[in-house]
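worker-03 picked up job from queue 'complexes'. Input manifest follows; two sequence lines, order preserved.
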Amino acid sequence: MQCPKCHAPMHTYNRNGVQIEQCSNCRGIFLDYGELEALTRVESQWTQQAPPPPPTPQGYPAAPVPPAPAWGAPQGGHGGHPGHGGHYGNKRHKSFGHMLFSS
Amino acid sequence: MDPEDPDAAPWEAAGGLLARLHRTPAPTPLPPMRGPAKAAGAVARLREAGPRPAVGAVLRAWSHLPAWARAEAPMPDTTTLCHGDLHLGQLVRHPAPDGPWRLIDVDDLGVGVPAWDLARPAAWYACGLLPPDEWTRFLTAYRDAGGPAVPADGDPWPALDVPARALTVQTAARALTKALAQGRDLDEVERALTDACARMSSAPAQLGPSPAK
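worker-03 finished. Artifact:
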């Protein structure tokens, strides 16, 4: 994936069973849903001298979204259809099918 | 290619063929490819429709494009061979139905900014009409085949931004002209295009096109 700040490639590291992405350029760190909580939990268990828990899957794996321009449609939901990210959803609009084939 | 079955769109073939075209040296001196001229034509026809609600946003987005993208100045690239009007209807199998894919219709072919040929799918993706995975298939195939329009990796948008804006404006202008002539409202897909035009005026254009690495 790419750094949302400086667009350099991000590399995945594993810290205590938590996948984190770090930017190869600005060193910024990206955490997926639930990963901050997982890190906090690991930290509190460390201070209690408890053995670290096995890594647990958090949420669902996020599909990498390719970059898009600032004027593009809002990503990850449009027109009150969360999860459908745009107009494609599960059914193609006839008008778009036609558009694919015309000048 | 069946317009009723867009899920079967040959994105890999489209990306690969386009990269091959862009890497082919122009055999003889060629005129500029006609992409910007076609966009300018669509905008001129919309202008004739007069002041209507969504027309202003589309014309404003057009006015913010650099002169070369409005066919009012030479393009910054005058050597790369370009198709000039790429859409899925320009892909055919020969011999049908199982032969290799070919790119047809050389009416608008010429030399110019190769990112223009990627700009229609890029615009569809940006407007939320083309799913991310299909956009990625097309772009990846183009890059894997050594296409020069975008850097081999990293963010392609600095190169795609201006042509994708132009194609969004062109497609919105065509849709709006048609809807006004038919006295009907825009449908959901057409509105996605005019909405994108309205957003463009508040998002400054990226520097582009940039040469490939």
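worker-03 released lock.
The mean pLDDT of chain B is 91.
Chain B has one domain: 6-200.
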